[in-house]
Task: structure prediction
Amino acid sequence: MIWDAEAVRTEVRRNAKRGVHALTFTENPAAMGYPSFHDDYWTPLWEALVDTDTVTDTCTSGRRAGWRSPRRMRRWT
Result:
């Protein structure tokens, strides 16, 4: 649902009612073609997180973050 900040807000609120108070999210939505975290587009999400005492963490994908596993690094050297 990343494509719709309003839908993400709804999901955060729905899950908070179920006792879920954590959200894993991409580290860089702009790299996926969505607005930057700094854009007002995400305001509904930030408000829902605050209102429901929900924390968020970023999930680094490795590929987009520039991280490589040691096993893969051996093939590049």
